[in-house]
Amino acid sequence: MGEMPVRISMGSWSFAFGPYAAEPKPLEEIARRLARAGYDGIELNGFPPHATLERYAARAERAALKSLLDGLGLGVSGYSSDLSALNPILEENRQAYLDRFRRLVELCHDLGSPMIRVDTGTAPGSLTDREYHAAFRHLADLWRECADAAREARVVMAWEFEPGFIFNKPSEVLGLYELVGHPWFRILFDTAHAYMCSVVGARQHGPRETLEGGVAEFIEKLGPAIGAVHVIDSDGTLYGDDTSHHVPIGQGRVPWRFVAPALAALPRIEWWCADLCFYPGAWEMVEDNLRAVREIAALAQPPSSSPAPRPGGS
């Protein structure tokens, strides 16, 4: 096809977590590498040692980073916030969580990031049934207030669901989105996490829940609730028995000929972020990863008048 339906970025955390944790690649080096490879942008890792709130506390430091990225021709597709020290389901953390979130959305605004990523911060299996349902309501109330702060900064708040944290069933993802009920709160749809949650049903609370139509059906169910996208493959396994194992596109089970058009049909999605989190050799695959994302983007066609059949997930 001709023009790509979206712009393509890559997450800088791909070179800071897992196999890279002992020797993370510096953010400036990552940015230069992505620019040389031909990416349109970068998605910023808000965890050490990258674009943390502490490292970029001053406006001058933020302006310098933005100037670097602008000079390289890189946009910012999003920001992965570090709220890990403040479990959002605990009432005693509420005010501190809100305060830090407000500071983080100011950072996003200054860096030109249109999106801030959050997660539920609590491991599956750590709550009783009663605690689980109470946490669902508590989190919705907290995130609704956070979304107000995001709106003030003109930054979309996007929740990334995954097997590593609670509320990862397809019905829970949609249910929590609807309970928050805020126009500046959306879902961050990671295709590997979506596979593990909708096809495998990994690390779910209570009865296992999957979708017959797999990832493509999950996209259809969420529709305009999706406000950000990460594209990566899944081999159907967990990384360290915790979260989704991300593998290079084409080495997993995500049915791209169905998933790519479904993603491309989503309204208001400007970016696809390529994500090789926890993957050894991600640095050597920067160019190959971009080519792979471009290839699946080329599969995206305008939606037809009749719905296409959906595979179960493999």
Q: Short description, anyone?
A:
The protein has 314 residues and is of the alpha/beta class. It has helices at residues 27-37, 59-71, 94-111, 129-153, 170-180, 191-200, 214-222, 256-264, 286-298; strands spanning 7-11, 41-45, 75-80, 115-118, 156-160, 185-190, 226-231, 233-239, 243-247, 271-274.
The shape, in one word, is globular
Beta strands, count: 10
Listing every helix as H and every strand as E from the N terminus to the C terminus, the arrangement reads: EHEHEHEHEHEHHEEEHEH
Distance between the termini: 25 Å
- Tell me about the biggest sheet? 8 strands, parallel, barrel
Task: Give the strand order, joined by hyphens, for the main sheet.
Answer: 1-2-3-4-5-6-7-10
Word description of this protein:
The chain is an alpha/beta fold. It has helices at residues 27-37, 59-71, 94-111, 129-153, 170-180, 191-200, 214-222, 256-264, 286-298, and strands at 7-11, 41-45, 75-80, 115-118, 156-160, 185-190, 226-231, 233-239, 243-247, 271-274. Helices cover 38% and strands 17% of the residues. The strands form two sheets. It has an eight-stranded parallel barrel with strand order 1-2-3-4-5-6-7-10, surrounded by six helices. A hairpin with a 3-residue loop joins β8 and β9 (243-247). α3 (94-111) packs parallel to α4 and α7 (214-222) runs parallel beside α8.
